Amino acid sequence: MKPEDRSVVRRATLPLSETRPLVTPLMPSTVYCAEDADRLDAVYEGRAPGYSYAREGHPNAALLADKISWMEGAAGGVMTSSGMSAISAVFLALLEKGDHIVAGNQLYGRCLRLLTQDLPRLGFEASLVDASDAAAVAAALRPETKLLLVEVVANPTLRVADIKGLTRLAKERGLIFVVDNTFATPRAFRPFDQGADIVLHSVTKLLAGHSDVTLGYVGAQEAAHNEALYDAVTTWGLNASPFDCWLAERGLNTFELRYDRSQENAKALADHLRGLPGVLQVLYPGEDDHPDAALARDLLQGNYSHMVSFELDARRSGVNAFLKAARNIAFAPTLGDVGTTISHPPSSSHRALTVDERAALGISEGFIRVSVGVEDIALLKREFSAAVAAARQDGT
Ligand SMILES: *Cc1c(COP(=O)(O)O)cnc(C)c1O
Question: Residues 153-169: pLDDT tens digits?
């Protein structure tokens, strides 16, 4: 090719290679070029592999969705731009005018807002009930109830949903049973094995694990559900970015190691907190005094995940003293990071609720939620001992 036949603009093709990179390449291309119109037809019609436009799919998302679908045992799934967009995709894909939703009353804060403020504005009603009580859920059903949405382990009180009872109910009443499996993760619990219809994740959390992506996943068993979810993601523009998918795939390589270590640390930290003066109660699904201990044992079989919540005998100033004294632990309103993070629901996830509404959920001013990471447990025990003592000091 003579130099004048080339263009510096967009004419390079990848060199042929007999070898492949070990690491998935990052493919940020918005668009894919076909040889001719017939080949493009074939790609669109699924007769040939390939992509056309990144909102409709790209290799980094496809690879990651396949991996999470495999972990969950889903027939298919799609990546979304956040956990919230995965939830939105479910509603946008499956609801029809007039449909009613029943959901757990301790869901992720934004999800509660979506159900109580945004969906009603669009004509969908939602009833929120205690998901650990299948009879209460049954009582909330209406003839027009279409969909049941729960979290396996709920934020921040770590209540456990009666997944088996709810699956039976959903089958009897022909409901679409949707499970947010973010807290438990497929390493602890696989909702499809119990008969759930749809599973979703905030991949932002433990699956990606490094607090550097905002990403979601939603997958289903029925082809019709998967098609509708894919169309909702593509049409409403809920798609995930290649870079986020690439980072999350890298994070997944160590997911099992991080999960196991974090879970082990969480159990040890729950035991440790229990012995500290100034701690009023510890919430951990693996302990006998947890309100859903029997459900947790039956469903999670010892895999109680990485979250521990507890109540300090403290007001705001004591909470501040606690946070300042825990110098090696980040005070950050997220969870699932490789390192331990502390959140204070009254000032973050549950700030929109009144004091009374929070009290009804068991969330006092001294309520602390810990997402336990992979640190040396001795360090965690030291940090928490010092921080709880600082809160007590404040109160005297
Ligand atoms: C964080 C979270 C979400 C929302 O996910 P984003 O990625 O922040 O949009 C949904 N459900 C649960 C249980 C979560 O923890």
Answer: 998 899 999 999 999 99
Cα–chain-centroid distance for residue 43?
Answer: 32
Which of 108, 183, 213 for a ligand 1 pocket mutation test, highest count of atoms within 8 Å of Cβ?
108
Residue 211 has φ and ψ, to the nearest 5°, of 50, 40
**Contact indicator for 362, 249 with CB cutoff of 8 Å:** no
Which residues carry out catalysis?
A: 55, 108, 180, 205
Domains of the chain: 54-252 (3.40.640.10), 255-395 (3.90.1150.10)
Per-position b or e across 179-215, b if 16+ CB within 10 A of its CB = bbbbbbbbbbbbbbebebbbbbbbbbbbbbbebebbb
- How is 299-318 classified by DSSP, letter by letter? HHTT---SEEEEEES--HHH
Q: What are phi and psi of 217, to 5 degrees?
A: -145, 140
pTM of model > 0.90 = yes
